[in-house]
Design goal:
- The protein is α/β, with parallel strands linked by helices.
- Helix content is about 35%, strand content about 20%.
- The protein has helices at about 10-25, 45-65, 80-90, 105-110, 140, 155-160, 175-185, 195-210, and strands at about 35-40, 70-75, 95-100, 115-120, 130-135, 165-170, 220-225, 225-230, 235, 240-245, 250-255.
- A hairpin with a 2-residue loop joins strand 10 (about 240-245) and strand 11.
- The relative contact order is 0.14.
- The model is unreliable at about 15-30 (pLDDT under 50).
């Protein structure tokens, strides 16, 4: 015979409460997605990581997103950068990787990622994986020249042979409004470099894609640098800006072009 139901009202409420708690534990609310910034944060290229980090944080605040940002130091080698990606792949909340710098964007690191990897800038590494998306002009990335290194204050300080050097980048000159907002976003914020607005815009694209549940390949976002969307893994209509290093400073040297 089936057992008689409990007649004690207090006991019945206790059983009901227990059932509700167990049901809540069985179906927890989904955790916020995580986006990793893979870049150098130590040694000679640390300027890349910190400049990008503050641009990402500003974009997160402006978007009002609950996405979690995770800063991953690339370790200064391709091997260590690959290990960081392998570890992030295993996080069930991991959604995308934004990568900058010569080691973080290496072909082996791209191939190791099981997540969409958005590469901001031109670091001398070509697109090497189907889930890699280049936030730079395709022509520049295929030239195998790490021109965006020349925009770094550290690089110019360490070399005295760069005066008069010309280079090209999809990174745009900074408006005074963005510079002021960037510098006011936190304490001890470094001066933003040419890629700051690109990092800001691509972060906006990633947050919008996560919100709408669109794959990165189908996402589009209009930001400071205009419309960013991808075709065959490259920023469609990405601009090319020409610069010259004059007395240690980066100076715009020619009109911008787009394909």
């Amino acid at each position: 015979m089936p057992a008689n139901p409990p007649r004690d009202p207090a006991r019945r409420w206790l059983l009901l409460l227990t059932a509700l708690i167990l049901a809540a534990c069985a179906a927890p609310p989904s955790a916020p997605k995580k986006v990793a910034l893979l870049a150098p944060f130590e040694n000679q290229y640390r300027e890349i990581g910190y400049n990008a980090l503050y641009a990402l944080r500003l974009a997160l605040d402006d978007a009002g997103s609950d996405t979690q940002l995770l800063a991953l130091d690339d370790g200064g080698t391709v091997k260590l950068a690959t290990a960081r990606v392998d570890a992030f792949n295993r996080d069930p909340a991991a959604a995308a990787i934004i990568a900058l710098g010569p080691h973080a964007t290496h072909a082996n690191v791209q191939k190791a990622s099981q997540l969409p990897m958005l590469i901001v800038g031109n670091w001398g590494n070509s697109r090497a994986a189907a889930n890699t998306f280049y936030v730079a002009n395709q022509e520049l990335t295929q030239a195998a020249k790490a021109d965006d290194l020349l925009a770094l204050e550290q690089a110019r300080a360490l070399r005295d042979d760069l005066d008069g050097r010309d280079f090209r980048s999809s990174g745009s000159p900074l408006s005074e409004n963005f510079r002021e907002r960037y510098l006011a976003s936190d304490l001890y914020v470094p001066q933003p470099n040419l890629l700051a607005t690109l990092v800001y815009d691509v972060a906006g694209l990633v947050f919008a894609a996560l919100e709408s549940k669109l794959p990165i390949s189908q996402a589009a976002h209009t930001g400071i640098n205009g419309l960013i969307q991808f075709q065959d893994g490259y920023w469609q209509g990405a601009p090319v800006h020409s610069y010259t290093i004059v007395a240690g400073e980066v100076v715009k040297s020619a009109p911008s072009t787009t394909p």
